[in-house]
Structure formats: structure tokens, C-alpha cells
Amino acid sequence: MRLINTSTLQLEEFFDASVPEYSILSHTWEKEEIIFPDMADLDKARSKAGFAKMEGACALAAAQGYTYIWIDTCCIDKSSSAELSEAINSMYRWYECSKICFAYLCDVKDPARLGDSRWFTRGWTLQELLAPSRVEFYTADWVRLGEKRDPDLVLALSHASLVDECVLGRVVSLEEVSVAKKFYWASKRTTTRREDEAYCLMGLFNVNMPLMYGEGSRAFFRLQQEITKATHDQSILAWYCDPFYGESGNEISTGYSGCYAKSPKCFALSGDITPLPVAQEGGLGQIDFTLPLRSSFSAILAETELGGLEAILCCQIGRVPGTFPTLVLTRDAENPQSCIRFLKDGVVSQTSMYTADALLAEARTSPITNTPHQMSTLGLWVGQSGSGVAGVANVMGLGGKYAATARTYAIYTRQLRL
Asked: Where is the Heterokaryon incompatibility domain positioned along the sequence (predicted)?
């Protein structure tokens, strides 16, 4: 890890346990940034517009007693793909381990316009807001606006970033936040390269993966795969927006995609989803997606057209207990072993269920093995839409261990709503 000495402005390199206490800068890139090769000749670097920002950050850090500061533009040798990959996979941890983060809002001079800063629209700055324990905000003239946990500032920060006040104040930890909500925080943010939509979120989910610039939207698909391996949170499927809606004549995109979302933009309506516990019984709870599932947006979402299945996700939507997001499904006519998920852009499908619906902690007989099994939690189920017949249930193979052991299923006692 390279750090800038705030007195000499020279780069110094440290490894693992030898890394000293350091501050860190969060900012948006502008013209003529000081980059790694420029650090070899500071006299020449002074002629670039970005030198004033680097020098100002170093002066601020030194004034607060920090000998070192890390700045992404000049501390990473981006000519080395191996170093760039290591840095991006380590960046969340670097921000998390910093003693203080200075968020420099280059386009803000009036404190009342803090929320208008481009800083709140960029993908990379989300982790830079969340990872450090302390974040101080500064205007373009290095006037202090306050710290992210300040009561006078946290409401404005929450409104601008979409991040809940309780998370900014560290009353609620990131581990308690659903996958869907984290993607919701990123849904309005942009990155220069499509792949960075995924790469900038790896640390937020505590996952790592190799960088492959040129893969496009597949990077976000890989990110969701890695998240699925690391968590039992089924809200990763609770997305309801078409990321390409409005890009070509306001038409709903046609064709099919997989069960995963194409972009964080798909989660623009998923900000009110919270996780529910999943029983840990052996491998129970892992989502492996063994049954093929395709997703398609439809301009019309009608039960008469679908007549299929409704999968209930193990997560809560809204504040009313017993309200769950669902997936509206139908069997694929070309491949009966597959399902197609139908969505109408911006319509959140959901259902309300209560303990009276025999879904919580009741002994039932498996429709597959015909043997009793104790249901200890909500899971991911598919029931025939409109059947309303007790005993009619389908186990969906979203999670090979669910389907293989028939441990998670539902016996519905009333009609499900689309």
C-alpha cells in the first residue's frame, strides 16, 4: 500500500502490519488529476490543475496530525493490471481501516447545496461513504461542512445518498441490511465503465472476484453469483425495474435474461426490503438456482395471461408484518423444467401471509417424499396461483439442497394473489 507523506508529498510504500495510521481522501475525478507517474516529478506536477486538490488534502491531513494520506488517483499504478485488481479488491478495507476520510465536494461552495454534489451520484463514492468510521465533508474551498454522524448533517446525507440515517450513524450495521437495499443505494449511481457498476460494490458485500474489463454487464452477474455463495439473503431476487426502460422510445425491453438483475438500477424500488432469518440445517438455505429461471419484462401483467406460479421470497417488504415480495412465474412452454419470471416495469409483486396461513413452524408432510418434516422458517416456495387447495405445493429448485431434500416447501391454505 502506497501512502503520501503529508509533509514531503512523497510516496512511501508499506506492507501489511507495517502500515501506519493514515487518513484517506474521497472525491470525484476532475480534469488534470495527479496520477501515479506524476508523483516522480512534483515540480512538473504543480502545473496540473489537480495538484491544488492533492496539496490541500495533504495540508488538511497534516493539520489534523496525520503523517500519511491515501489518494486513489496517485497512489495506484494503473498501468499494472495486477496492482489495479489488488487495489480495487482491497479498496473497501483501505477506507474502512483509515482513521478519517475527507470527502471533498469540488462542486459545492454553498453548504445548503451539499445534496446537489456529483459526489452522491458516483458508484465508487458509496463505499467511501459507508466504509470509514469517520467521514468529514468539505466544500471546494476546504470549508468543513460536518461529519457524517452529525445530527445536523445526517438527514441531508441520507436524502442525497439514499442510505438510511441509522446506517450512517452506525446504529444499524451493514450486516443487518438486505442485499436488495444495498443495491437500492447504488441504483441511482453511475460509473464511467459498465463493469465498475459491479466492481465498486464488492466491498459492500464482502466478496472478491477477478477484474475483467471488457466483460460489460456480465460483471454484475458475477457479483450476484458471489453474493449468493456468501449469503442466504433471498432479497437478491427482489428486483422489479427494467434498467433499459426509456432508453429506446420508452419501450419495455423484450427477450429474456436470467434470474439475476442486469444492473443495480433494477433495484430502484427495493429500498424497503429487510431480510428474514433462514434456518441453518446442514446446507439448508443456500440458493444455488439449479432450476433454470429466465426473466422477462411484459407491458401487461395479468393472471389470465400467466396462470402460473408465485414464489414467495424469505424477506419482508414494507413495515407491515407478513408482507413478502414475490416472483410471478410460469412454466416455460419450450422447456417444462424451466420457469419464466414475468415483470411489469416498476410493479412490485407482493403478498401478505400470516401465521394462520400455516407457514411458520408447523409440521407438514413433504409433497415429494411423503414424510413428515418440521418447517422451522420461511423459505423460498412456489405455489400454484389461484389453487387455494390445501396440499397443493411445488418445490422450486432455487437451491439444490432445498429441492434435493424436500426440506423447504409450503402447503397453502388459501388462494395466492398475483
From this structure: 22-106
